[in-house]
Design a protein that fits this description.
It is a single chain. The protein has 501 residues and is of the alpha/beta class. The chain has 2 domains: 172 residues, Aspartate Aminotransferase, domain 1 (Alpha-Beta Complex); 232 residues, Type I PLP-dependent aspartate aminotransferase-like (Major domain) (Aspartate Aminotransferase, domain 2, 3-Layer(aba) Sandwich). It is 46% helix and 12% strand. The protein has 16 helices and 11 strands. Strands 1-7-6-5-4-2-3 form a 7-stranded mixed beta sheet, with helices on both faces. Strands 8-9-11-10 form a 4-stranded antiparallel beta sheet. α5 runs parallel beside α12. The chain starts with 12 loop residues before the first helix and ends in a 6-residue tail after the last helix. 42% of the residues are buried. The C terminus is likely disordered. Bound molecules: pyridoxal-5'-phosphate. Pyridoxal-5'-phosphate binds next to α6. The site of pyridoxal-5'-phosphate has 15 residues, from α6.
Length: 501
């Protein structure tokens, strides 16, 4: 019988890992160089072909060995990646992870502690207890925090804890701003809550007067209301008036959840922390350090002001937390999550906090927010572009002045297909905008100038393609062949809206 492949842990693990790591790192470097931009060229079909070539057969009868498998697949994944470390990859709240955090995550993978029982994670569970308390204390001295897979799970848990806290009195009703993240609506559905009440957010932020009115209308002595406000909207990075909303909640005895998945990073910035004033009044707060925290996913947290609320998650499974084990002093971890097996995501977070300190992290936050301000000013002064608003965080929404909504969507897809820039989109204030979410502290002003040039160029390309096609059709001379050519080169929705049908 041949020797089984080496393991990652133990005293020998690191020596077995070293050459494999070297192979993976080489493939990361070479793959990024082969891509040569923020995104692979050619769209889904071209990427799919390259992945198939690298990955087929998925389960060969006889394996290739570790180095070849790593080289081939890591290279393919890197070459075909949307890489947030490229300044022109700026669509989403998709941060470029810090090298130090990725290195810590490798150690977590090698050790593989599982956070569902003390006997699988003695030190990792102690570290998690310490770090979650410390991060929660940034919001409220009495608070605790749970580690989650991100904003979606944190929001769901917040709804669950609110539902359970309300249970003795009656049902829970959720109120969200029009600007709230979709995961709250989905969470309400998942938990079988009645459909959320949507409160107007006319300027992109939840309107406290409209909230007050909605709560007055709903009334009801047996219903508990949960208001979910947002600190950093996904589309525009806007922060709801948290203190005013907390006042309205207090007046109506409503619970308050604040989704600070994006804006929570401001807690590290001495200059911008004040923008979150009022956050300490929330019952629960969603934080997401794989956004303004530069962690590889996943690195979510739910801060819970009154740790008694966590009793709702208490759960017994004899093999993990038998009563006598708990009585004998083994920490009971099962109530810290709805998951069972759970990665020690706290390690990369703890390492990053220690490595950079508050000042280091705050400087990163300020860097990307300042960058956004400068980019916005540049757009505002630009004759061919229009700015949505001065950014509150690091999201800049803009549009070419001469583009309609359909054209704008085509421009975004053209950039994706060319592999030259990754921008997001948002429909706000009755119009469509291109969205640059700036999370890369290494981005320079020249990168952002390049971004605008690429948008201009792509916009011209899209116009030319559309006008070429319209004139062909209008002149009635378009041969079947020419039409076919247009159809091959343009995705079907690229034609939509430009062709009278
Ligand atoms: C990103 C985001 C979420 C969802 O977080 P995930 O980590 O993607 O699950 C929730 N709320 C807001 C405001 C967000 O920006």
């Amino acid at each position: 019988m041949s020797t089984p492949p080496p393991l990652a842990g133990g005293v020998q693990g690191p020596d077995a890992l070293r050459p494999l790591l070297a192979a993976a790192l080489d493939a990361l470097r070479d793959g990024a160089a082969a891509r040569g931009g923020p995104l692979p060229r050619g769209g889904p079909a071209a990427v799919g072909d390259r992945v198939r070539t690298a990955a087929d057969p998925v389960l060969p009868e006889h394996g290739t060995g570790p180095e070849a498998a790593l080289r081939t697949l890591v290279h393919a994944l890197t070459e075909g990646a949307a890489d947030p470390a490229d300044p022109l990859c700026a669509a989403h709240l998709h941060c470029p992870p810090l090298a130090v955090a990725a290195a810590a995550d490798l150690a977590a993978s090698a050790l593989n502690p599982s956070m569902d029982s003390w006997d699988q994670a003695p030190a990792a569970s102690a570290l998690e207890a310490l770090v979650t308390r410390a991060l929660a204390a940034e919001i409220h001295p009495a608070a605790d925090a749970l580690v989650t897979t991100g904003g979606t799970e944190s929001n769901q848990l917040a709804l669950l804890l609110a539902r359970e806290a309300a249970a003795p009195r009656g049902p829970l009703r959720l109120l969200v701003g029009e600007n709230a993240h979709h995961s709250l609506i989905r969470g309400a559905w998942l938990l079988g809550l009645p459909g959320p009440v949507t409160v107007p957010a006319p300027a992109g932020t939840l309107d406290p007067a409209a909230l007050d009115e909605a709560l007055n209308e709903l009334g009801g002595p047996h219903t508990t209301f949960l208001v979910a406000a947002t600190a950093g909207t996904t589309d525009a990075g806007l922060i709801d008036p948290l203190d005013d909303i907390a006042d309205v909640c207090a007046a109506h005895r409503a619970r308050l959840h604040i989704d600070a998945a994006y804006g929570g990073g401001l807690l590290f910035s001495d200059v911008r922390k004040h923008l979150l004033h009022g956050i300490e009044r929330a019952h629960t707060v969603t934080l997401d350090l794989h956004k303004l925290g530069w962690q590889p996913a996943a690195a979510g947290l739910l801060v819970v002001r009154d740790p008694h609320d966590l009793a709702a998650l208490t759960h017994r499974a004899d093999y993990l937390n038998a009563d006598d084990d708990t009585d004998a002093g083994l920490p009971d971890l099962l109530g810290r999550s709805l998951r069972t097996t759970r990665r020690p995501d706290i390690l990369k977070i703890a390492v990053t906090l220690k490595a950079l300190g508050r000042t280091g992290l705050g400087a990163l936050v300020d860097q990307v927010c300042d960058q956004a301000r400068q980019f916005a000013a540049h757009i505002e002064a630009h004759p061919r572009f229009e700015l949505y608003d001065t950014p509150a965080l690091s999201t800049v929404l803009f549009r070419p002045t001469d583009a309609d909504d359909t054209h704008l969507a085509h421009v975004r897809r053209q950039l994706l297909t060319d592999g030259t820039a990754v921008l997001g989109r948002a429909d706000l204030a009755g119009r469509r905008w291109l969205k640059a979410t700036l999370l890369n502290p290494h981005t320079r002003p020249t990168d952002l100038a390049t971004l605008l040039e690429l948008v201009t160029k792509a916009s011209e390309e899209v116009s030319e393609e559309a006008s070429g096609e319209v004139s062909e059709e209008a002149s009635g001379e378009a041969s079947g062949e020419a039409k076919e050519r247009v159809n091959q080169h343009a995705t079907p929705d690229l034609l939509e809206g430009t062709t009278p049908r």
